[in-house]
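Researcher: Structure prediction, please.
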Amino acid sequence: MTIKVVRGNPTPEELAAALAVVRARAAAAAATPSGAQGPRDAWSDPARIASARVPSPGQASWSRTFWPS
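Model: Predicted structure follows.
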């Protein structure tokens, strides 16, 4: 694997930190089976919206129908 600095003049410590992150990500990707999904992000979980109670009727209830408060 070759890493090329395109812009700037990083210190050896900065390069070591960047390389450590890249190597950790590569090791995590290699450890995950090819057909397995990673952990599900809470943002994309449909239960996040479905678990909220329905807004009570009122003047601005239409704006609260999708985003839970």
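Model: The chain has a mean pLDDT of 77.
Researcher: Thanks, that helps.
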